Amino acid sequence: MEGCGKYHLELRCLFPGNKVMELVVKAENINENYKNSYASSETCEENCSCINPVDDVKCRKAACRGDSKDNYLFCPRADCIQPEDFVHFQRHWMRCEPIIVSNALENGSGLSWEPLVMWRAFRQVNNTKHEKELEVQAIDCSDWCFIDVNMHKFFTGYSEGIFNGKDCPQILKLKDWPPSTEFDKRLPRHGKEFVCCLAFKEYTHPSSSTLNLTCHLPKSAVKPDLGPKTYIAYGVAQELGRGDSVTKLHCDMSDALKRKHMEQDQKEIFGNFGPKRLTCNKDIDDAGEGGALWDIFRVQDVPKLEQYIKKHCREFRHIQCRPLKQVVHPIHDQTIYLTVEHKRNLKAEYGIEPWTFIQKLGDAVFIPAGCPHQVRNLKSCIKVAVDFVSPETVGQCFRLTEEFRTLPPDHRASKDK
Description:
12 helices, alpha+beta, 4-stranded antiparallel beta sheet
């Protein structure tokens, strides 16, 4: 086959000649089994303990949707999971419902996830002569611009606070750290601890999950970076409207598990910041030990969610707190955070609401591919995340892949994935 100039383009096949047909047959069998499983799931739905729970031992109320049967989320304790809980997990998972596994750190060795402990571990493994690796690019939540900050200063600020020139707290967040796809080499002990504490390893183990499709790709295939990665952010309880420590509305192209390992109450740090900006609102009155406020939207509500954002796009602010000039894609732009007021208006205008809940220390949140979600840190938090691709949601992964392909070449979603 002719190539460019005098060069020729040689096409090679990664699989044997009959491999594609074998995959088609297997896919058809899986699809048929999935239909049978889904039908069985629909039959069992009426008897699910999460519809009208007698107690909240294995479920958590997260929405108030009138006649809906999915207001409660399945929430087993990691140290009390029984064989029947795996089937229960799958029933909710194939309906694209998030799942919370509490007390996920109970099965670990007790390794400290304190920021400075992680920083020291990182320095021990890495050559300290590489000064560039001792600086990180953090996001300043006051204007959503990147700033260079010394790693030790960032971690110290997590525990002790950082104030800017106006004597106001500086809210920073650090995403995807360490800056490498090799988390286990940069933080080997923490990597082993994270895998040890994973719930439902049949789906979540990075290398040996039976139901994580990425574990079954050919060795020659280019695999996506699925983590684990850490997300470290400062936070305060009050919703400020501007400068909040948030992960803006977005949709992951694969399934995700995000577990909170550490939290620090910034109210203790910024105690002189002013009571008006640190008082709680009704969304977080019951936060207690919680560190992050989650909103996860149902897949079937995405069209109405996108309509609302397009209609109200001028009301949102992003870079340097300026109003948005345009919206390329309401969700994939990652420039929107729905405040309490916006969520109230969304329900009034379109009749939809997200699952809203407080993530506590040790909670592992399973987010199905295709579910838009946003997070606001009520305290400084360290979260560790790993992605996976399950058979139940692979259709959503393909749908999102096609959506990303229609975005402009310089769109952030194209760079992230």
